[in-house]
Write a structure and sequence with these properties.
Length: 202
């Protein structure tokens, strides 16, 4: 079984979905570490409640971003982490960090990239009045909200949707999709070809 670490900054509903899938035996990975850059992230509570090692690492304790990331890397090595799972981690990882875990960092984004990058993707899609939006899980590369796609799902925007109802459906899809994508990445062989990850048959 592969060891995963989840990076968070906020509420942690995706972390919760991962924890629940592991508990149910559906997702077969060891969640060995949760790292937050935000002391008051509720995600840290969720990790502790599930008895998962949870670390708050304060970026301000370091004189440079690289030192902050080196500390994170040290912790990942200590726990023998195979895969880094970003779940609402509000910090951009440097090319140095990305290269250290090449094709071993994944992210979930609540829109169909390359449309609606950034921190307000659901609201931006809603306000743009597009007919459909969705969720993408992708490998992290040097560009923000960019990298080979692992899994995606579409969410139609309905006529009577409010931003809240749309958010609810997107989050529900995220919570289904992310554990499945983690299972895929940790159990199947794959090749990264251009902007797509091609998984070999299991
Ligand atoms: C999710 O919508 C995710 O797609 C985005 O940040 C949000 C995190 O939510 N990257 P949560 O902390 O998992 O509840």
């Amino acid at each position: 079984m592969k060891n995963i670490a989840v990076f968070v900054s906020g509420n942690g509903t995706n972390l919760q979905a991962i924890i629940d899938s592991i508990k149910k035996g559906v997702l077969k990975v060891n969640l060995v570490l949760v790292i937050s850059d935000n002391k008051s992230a509720f995600a840290l509570e969720r990790a502790r409640k599930a008895q998962v090692k949870a670390l708050y690492i304060n970026p301000k304790d370091f004189s440079s971003k690289q030192d902050f990331e080196k500390d994170i890397l040290k912790n990942l090595e200590k726990e023998k982490v195979d895969l880094v799972v970003l779940a609402g981690f509000m910090r951009i990882l440097s090319p140095y960090f990305v290269a250290s875990y090449k094709n071993r960092i994944i992210n979930i984004h609540p829109a169909l990239l390359p449309a609606f990058k950034g921190a307000h993707a659901i609201k931006d899609a809603f306000e743009a009045k597009v007919r459909e939006t969705g969720v993408i899980v992708h490998f992290v590369d040097e560009e923000v909200d960019h990298g080979p796609i692992i899994a995606q799902g579409i969410v139609k925007i309905l006529k009577d949707d409010t931003l809240e109802s749309l958010e609810d459906r997107i989050h529900k899809l995220e919570h289904e999709l992310y554990p499945k994508a983690i299972e895929l990445v940790t159990t199947r062989q794959f090749e990264v070809k251009g902007d797509k990850a091609v998984f070999k048959r299991g």
